[in-house]
Design a protein that fits this description.
286 residues; six-stranded antiparallel β-barrel; 2 helices
Amino acid sequence: MLTFLFPFVAACGTQEDVSDAYGNFEAIEVMVSAETQGRIETFVPEEGSTLEAFQVTVVIDSTQLYLKKIQLESGKSSLDTKIQTLDAQVRASRVQMNNLERERQRIDKLAEGGAATAKQQDDIQGQIALLEAQIQATESQKASVYAERRTLEVQIRQVEDQLLKCAVRNPIHGILLTKYKEAGEIAVPGQPLYKVANLDELILRAYVSGNQLSSVAVGQEVRIRFDGPQGMVETSGVVSWISPRAEFTPKIIQTREERVNLVYAMKVKVNNNGSLKIGMPGEVIF
């Protein structure tokens, strides 16, 4: 558990108080964008507000999507009625088929005794074949209607998904840093609505020279210093990343060896009790 220590004033001229790396605090900022287009009905939180994960922060007008859903559901209901009608036709045709089958059996027996002609047999067989074709046509039509209904069901689910996206939910617990839209403006898919960051843990991005790399490793606990109201405040942090490649020293960064031109970036995770702010300078002691 990373804890804050009491503030202290660094003693000048002692080797112990010389920091090994310098940098600035930053946070992982999340840009929250709209996923659907429409007029923003509500956007209540203000900059600096604490937002919870999955909290509804922005509500986008969903009237047109709701009307489209009603239209699709009406079309699906019409297809359901059509399927019921086709099912009734198939059932009636099968009853008629059973009657024709019995009639054919009777004619075949009469024909064996010479009481029915071959023409009567051909006629009844033709009626049966015609009815079978009608049943197949009805079944094919019913399959087509089923496919059309499945398409409408998919479209309804798509609209329902879009309706859910009209209520923008905050992705993480954090502080609302910047608002880019206000209620009454138009939201566009992919266009940022606001920026949020979790300030409970900040990252100190610092820079070390090549000969300092052997003194630090990922997962190592280090000492962190930053300016407080009564002098330097010290806490601890954990190294989470060290760049595998060197880069030129940023102009705003000073290193322990001022002649070093190439440095390696590193990130240190630091718990924040509210004293740390984004952009504040910080120091690292290995």
